[in-house]
Write a structure and sequence with these properties.
heterotrimer, A alpha+beta (about 170), B alpha+beta (about 950), C mainly beta (about 90), B: about 950 residues, alpha+beta, Ubiquitin-like (UB roll), FAD/NAD(P)-binding domain, Gyrase A, domain 2, seven-stranded mixed sheet, 23 helices, C: mainly beta, Folate-binding fold, four-stranded antiparallel sheet, two-stranded antiparallel ribbon, globular, oxidoreductase (chain C), SoxD_sf (chain C), Sarcosine oxidase subunit delta (chain C), sarcosine oxidase activity (chain C), EC 1.5.3.1 (chain C)
């Protein structure tokens, strides 16, 4: 891609650091929506292990629904979407951005608007859910580290909500 | 300080005096005081005026059940909170509190005239009296009544405070931290359960705070709970509602007790999901019903004990007790111990335990058994009481400044009732107690009816020799409902307590009848000569106590009120003076005025620029769905009205989407990228709805199809480049795509790069001009836009907004679904029957196109309108008639859906939905407007370049 | 806010992740063109409004995205059961 043209992100590239929690914009990623009737069908195409259970992640692939997976990988590694097989691979790299919520109060921050119980949300788990009225995907990367994927047009609102809650 | 503060005792910090004000007068209290205890210590007995009669009222209770002492607190501009209970307001330096519902002052209240006229204000008075004449209600009666009858003033300024909110999860939620709640927490503490303990007061303890003998236990327990890692303690927190599946709403008050306003949240809304709920809400003492029982200085006996033992305040210097329950005796003994002077104990009962009598005798208290209070003297404070024997009515006068009432106890089943747990009546305590749960919940302690207060007798109204119709014996103190009102309701034919409640308003005030419900029930029961259980029980509903709107709205205000979705190019538009409008949740640039331009001048300029050179438009908000899989074409063929299977890769098609009822729900241009891949577009507002509808059919009707849908609305920023110079501008910037007319015709798609960025380039037009829609990965939207602006300068490139887009499309006869259609318009009605595949055996909505109503003549159809006077721009929404001379009310045959000034055509244009409109071509219709009826000719909808010469270049 | 068991995720999730999608087991006729006006009217517009057990469709729209069926009591607002789309009526 042209170096001349800049990326324009919907939130600040300067992290918000508050007591016990920080919120920062993750670096650009490649993202794909992977759809197939079974995990096996995808495994054939990807030549990689694909998690079977909704909520599980494996090698950057999260199972979000019975026929839906979410692949995130380094920005440099584009993958072919045209397989000719009964699977669907769609490039959604720029549909969302990722906010990294990190620190001992990370789960507490998400709880301010997300009704899930993070005491029962293991590291490695991923799910689509909702923060107040905004749909998000939460991936628990570590005990104190979450990735929150949010569609770009909602990102500014979510950033404001997170940073306000973090300051409380 | 006056003589009401006891020498010793209480949990107040006597080393920390606190200065505050009430009605503008300065007072002093101690840290740990409530506004109620501090003012009582200062000898204040008058706290407010009652709702209807403006009677002087004092403190009746010590907790959140207080019905009388409602006050307002002013914390500065916009920080005005009315209707707080003085018993729940912690004093702090600078506290600025006011009494309510009085004018000009609390002591001299003009509205008190209502009390003198009380006999004219029976239950149902307002409904009966102010019916006629009807027109007087809004202008005269209601404003006058509202001024006279009321609570505190509503705040008038915007609230500058911020409010926090959170969800929380626990295995065990305990509501109420009195002894029963604390015991439940201690018992569960050793498990690995996550426990939340909630209490509305500033410290744990509940009733134990008024019992010094329990303080060592309380301190040990408090420490143990604070040290337990699995226990979260929330004080100053009111669990206000109990909802399905053990979901409890609670508000934590964070800063109101502090001297200074801060930037941190004032309150926090807790949305708690609990595995099990233990309700330990305690019980509320019941007042007794007798003439003058609302005089300042008459209060609950348990409250007097709280004020003495917790706050070190004597509620009076000579105190009498009217009791029907043992607990009153125990309270009085505690008061003696605390140093409060007791004048007499009057018990309505004839027999009671000798232990109580012996203790009273030992303490030298005068005792009157089988007696009742029949009157109270004093207006702003009790001066004496009248008592008499229940049998012979032989009376006596007792001088005292305070009269305590002990009428028994009512378990607090509020939250239990919110949860739809059932209740059982217990005759022995004259109260409903929790029975069968509806959630995983249980009640412990006094709110389950289990207590050691002793026993009592249930009396509805105390015996009196007075004419019952002339006394004011209050049942609901906050709504000014007397025993007489309830009896009147029964006489007028009301039988159910639900009806009696609504007629008399008993229990309908902000305290939800915490002190009045059961007395009202008993009085109705006696009047109807039916057992209480036959009369029913009114329901408790959230909130348990009033909560601020701020807490419930939490952070949903200002910038966070609701998400405003913005495109990648929005920032450029903002920096370049765009005027915005909201379309669904999206913020879109409406027009880009130059210096001195109004909207019309800007829109005219933008339209002309597109028609004459090139315009640039942010179309990113268009909904986009990627449809992928071997059955993609088959699926679209079933969804859309038109055929898709024969569409070649690289070509686009206009798609019309119906609902199964045959009415248009969405439209858009879609492209086939590959045999198994389509790029759909939808309207901005329809994106989510269309995807949901398609998923519905795919998942539940045709699960056999191998095709998947992915929203790509936000994957691409979309820049529309429209106008005769569009190709010239684009050509040098694009690689990998031959832009020539032959290689890249209208309604085609190509993939390549623009300025080095990958693009899905559509050759489409919503303006009628040569046009392209450039899809680039969203992050690069603004950069590509700015590049086009710079390169386009030589063509005088003009950014245009949604308003110009609307005009341009209308000139070409393109409809906007949702503006020109309203959910009852078929493809035929809209003149789009060419897009409905008649040869296709089926598609969503096809069968409905043969429904009797839809083939019937006279349906509203979309047509063009050209006003007789070309300068008249009709109002959108204006009604249309066939004959302007017909009498009013006229028969309206349609309305204007779109109407604009067309600078290109030098005249106005409009679309309208008109009954039978397709048959009226060339005919005249009339649009009656204030002052003038406009005349317009029915025309086709394409006003400009009907043959499409400008497109195919 | 109730909890709803999603039969695909196989766990109870908060109500705000879900959307109601009307009465369940109203199948689109395989050949709509063969339907009489009355039959088509019944398919389009006629719905049950029971007091008590009600078969409904819900979608875990902010979760796994799947439509499923549920039996909910319209009086108590309690879910009796939920099951996957395509499974027989319960």
């Amino acid at each position: 891609m042209s170096d001349a043209l800049f990326r324009n992100e919907p939130v600040s590239s300067t992290p918000c650091v508050a007591d016990g929690v920080s919120i920062s914009l993750a670096a650009p990623l490649k993202r794909y929506s992977l759809r197939a009737r079974t995990a096996e069908a995808l495994e054939t195409v990807l030549n990689a292990k694909v998690p079977q259970k909704i909520g599980a992640t494996e090698g950057g692939i999260a199972c979000l629904g019975p026929d839906e997976w979410f692949l995130r990988t380094a920005a440099e590694t584009a993958m072919p979407t045209d397989t000719g097989l009964p699977v669907a691979i769609t490039d959604i790299s720029e549909r969302s951005i990722c906010l990294v919520v990190e620190g001992p109060r990370a789960a507490e921050l998400l709880m301010t608007g997300c009704p899930l119980d993070f005491d029962n949300f293991a590291v490695g788990r991923a799910t689509r859910t909702i923060y107040e009225t905004v749909e998000i995907i939460i991936i628990r990367e570590g005990e104190d580290r979450f990735h929150v994927e949010v569609w770009r047009s909602f990102a500014a609102w979510l950033w404001t909500a997170f940073t306000a809650a973090a300051s409380h | 300080m006056s003589g009401y503060r006891l020498e010793n005792g209480g949990r107040i910090d006597r080393s920390r005096p606190v200065e505050f004000s009430f009605d503008g007068n300065p007072y002093q209290g101690f840290a740990g005081d409530t506004l109620a205890s501090a003012l009582l210590a200062n000898g204040i007995s008058l706290f407010g005026r009652s709702f209807k009669y403006h009677r002087p009222r004092g403190i009746m209770a010590a907790g959140s059940e207080e019905p009388n002492a409602l006050i307002s607190v002013d914390r500065g501009a916009g920080r005005f909170t009315p209707n707080l209970r003085a018993t729940g307001v912690e004093i702090h330096a600078g506290l600025n509190a006011f009494s309510q519902n009085r004018w000009p002052s609390l002591k001299r209240d003009f509205g008190a005239i209502n009390d003198r006229l009380g006999m004219f204000f029976p239950a149902g008075f307002y409904n009966k009296t102010f019916m006629w004449p009807r027109s007087f209600w809004e202008k005269l009666y209601e404003p006058a009544i509202r001024k006279m009858a009321g609570l505190g003033d509503a705040p008038t300024q915007e609230d500058p405070d911020i409010y926090a909110s959170t969800y929380a999860h626990c295995d065990l939620l305990i509501v109420g931290a009195g002894p029963a709640g604390i015991d439940a927490a201690l018992e569960a503490m050793g498990s690995n359960k996550r426990i939340i303990l909630i209490d509305e007061q500033d410290e744990l303890g509940g009733g134990a705070l008024a019992d010094p003998a329990l303080w060592p236990w309380l301190e040990r327990s408090r420490k143990a709970l604070i040290d337990a890692p699995n226990v979260t303690i929330l004080t100053r927190t009111t669990a206000f509602g109990y909802y399905h599946d053990n979901f409890i709403g609670a508000v934590q008050r964070l800063t109101d007790h502090m001297p200074n306003n801060s930037d941190s949240p004032r309150e926090k809304l807790w949305r708690v999901r609990a595995g099990e709920v233990v309700l330990a809400q305690g019980a509320i003492e019941r007042p007794l019903v007798f003439d003058g029982n609302d005089t300042p200085g008459v209060m609950l006996s348990s409250a007097a004990k709280v004020f003495a033992n917790r706050f070190g305040v004597a509620v009076g210097t000579s105190v009498a007790l009217m009791t029907a329950h043992d607990s009153g005796w125990h309270d009085v003994f505690a008061l003696v111990k605390a140093g409060v002077g007791i004048k007499a104990v009057i018990d309505v009962r004839t027999e009671l335990s000798s232990a109580l009598l012996d203790e009273a005798s030992r303490l030298g208290i005068n005792v009157y058994l089988n007696h009742s209070v029949t009157g109270v003297n004093g207006r702003h404070r009790v001066t004496s009481i009248q008592i008499c024997n229940n049998d012979d009515f032989v009376g006596a006068r007792i001088d005292c400044d305070t009269l305590l009432m002990a009428g028994g106890w009512t378990p607090s089943v509020h939250l239990w009732s919110h949860s739809k747990g059932s209740l059982a009546w217990r005759d022995d305590i004259g109260a409903y107690v929790p029975d069968q749960p509806n959630e995983n919940a249980r009640c412990v302690g006094a709110c389950s009816g289990g207590w050691d207060f002793g026993s009592g007798m249930i009396v509805d109204v105390l015996p009196t020799p007075k004419d019952q119709s002339r006394i004011k014996a209050f049942v609901d103190f906050q709504n000014d409902v007397t025993a007489k009102d309830i009896k009147l309701a029964v006489r007028e034919g009301f039988r159910s307590i639900e009806h009696i409640k609504r007629y008399t308003t008993n229990g309908m005030a902000t305290d939800q009848g915490k002190t009045s419900n059961l007395n009202g029930l008993q009085i109705a029961s006696t009047a109807l000569a039916k057992p209480v259980t036959d009369i029913g029980l009114t329901s408790f509903r959230p909130p348990y106590t009033p909560q601020t709107f701020g807490a419930l709205a939490a952070h949903a205000k200002g910038a966070l009120f609701q998400p405003t979705r913005t495109t990648n190019i929005d920032g450029w538009a903002a920096e370049n003076g765009a005027v915005f409008e909201l379309v669904a949740q999206w913020r879109r640039a409406r027009y880009f005025p130059k210096m001195g331009e109004d909207m019309h001048a800007a829109v005219n300029r933008e339209c002309v620029a597109v028609r004459s050179s090139v315009g640039i438009f942010d179309a990113s908000t268009l909904g986009k769905i990627e449809v992928v899989g071997p059955d993609a074409a088959e699926f679209l063929n079933r969804m859309y009205t038109n055929p898709w299977k024969a569409l070649e890769p690289g070509r686009c098609r206009y798609g019309l989407l119906l609902k199964e009822d045959g009415f248009i729900t969405d439209d858009g241009v879609s492209a086939r990228l590959a045999p198994d891949r389509f790029h759909l577009t939808t309207t901005t507002g329809g994106a989510a709805r269309v995807l949901n509808m398609m998923e519905d059919y795919l998942q539940t009707e045709w699960p056999d199809l191998d095709v998947w849908l992915t929203s790509t609305t936000e994957q691409y920023a979309v820049i529309a480049l429209q106008g005769p110079n569009a190709r010239k501008l684009l050509e040098p910037l694009v690689e990998g795509i031959d832009l020539s007319a032959d290689a890249f015709p209208h309604m085609a798609i190509r993939e390549g790069t623009i300025c080095g960025i990958p693009t899905r380039l559509f050759r489409v037009s919503f303006t009628g001009e040569l046009g392209f829609e450039i899809n680039v990965p969203t992050a690069y939207g603004r950069a590509v836009w700015e590049h086009l602006m710079a390169e386009g300068a030589k063509f005088d490139i003009t950014p245009y907004g949604t308003e110009a887009m609307h005009v341009l499309r209308a000139e070409k006869g393109f409809i906007i679904v949702g503006q020109d259609t309203d959910g009852t318009i078929t493809p035929f009605d809209a003149g789009l029957d060419w897009a409905a595949g008649k040869k296709k055996p089926d598609f969503v909505g096809k069968r409905s196109m043969a429904r009797p109503d839809i083939v019937a003549p006279g349906r509203k159809q979309l047509v063009g309108l050209l006003t007789d006077d070309p300068n008249v721009v009709l109002e959108e929404g204006a009604q249309i008639v066939a004959d302007p001379r017909q009498p009013i009310p006229m028969t309206m045959i349609g309305h204007v859906t779109s109407s604009y000034w067309s600078e290109t055509l030098g005249r106005s244009i409009a679309f309208a939905l008109v009954a039978g409109g397709h048959e009226m071509m060339g005919g005249m219709l009339y649009i009656p407007m204030p002052g003038k009826t406009h005349e317009a000719k029915v025309s086709g909808m394409v006003f400009y370049d009907a043959e499409g010469a400008r497109l195919h270049v | 806010m109730i909890l709803i068991h999603c039969p695909y995720c196989d766990e109870k999730r908060p109500e705000i992740e879900f959307a109601n999608a009307g009465q369940a087991h109203v199948a689109r006729p395989l050949d709509p063109s063969s339907q009489s006006d009355e039959e088509w009217e019944a398919y389009l517009f006629i719905r049950a409004n029971p007091r008590g057990r009600h078969h409904e469709r819900w979608r875990h729209v902010h979760g796994c995205g799947r439509f499923f069926n549920a039996v909910r009591d319209t009086v108590t607002d309690k879910f009796e059961t939920t099951y996957k789309a395509g499974e027989p009526r319960r």
